[in-house]
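Comment thread on ticket #2218

A.B. wrote:
> Attaching the input chain for the structure job we discussed in standup.
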Amino acid sequence: MSFNFIKSDNHSDHSASPEKKLFTAILSQAVHDAFSSHVDKIERRAARSFLTRNSKDFRVICEMAGRSPDYVKEKIEKKLYETPSLY
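C.D. wrote:
> Ran it. Output below, let me know if you need it in another format.
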C-alpha cells in the first residue's frame, strides 16, 4: 500500500528541516498504524480516528510536515472506503 503523498513532495526532501522530517514521520506512522493488520485493533482505530477527525493536532502536524490537512484527510478517507476492514 503506497502513501507517497505523505512521504515525499514533488521535490527532494533531503534538505528538509529536522522538524519537517519529524512531522512527516509522525504522519507516516499514523498511516502505517491505520492500515496494518499486525497493529492492535484499538491502536488501528485510534490512528484512523486521528487521520479523519480533522482535529487541531492533526491540522498542525500536517502543516508542519508541509502537507495539506484537507488533502491528507481526503486521501485517507478514500483509502479507508476502498480497504476491507481489518479484524
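A.B. wrote:
> Thanks. Noting for the ticket: The mean pLDDT is 88.
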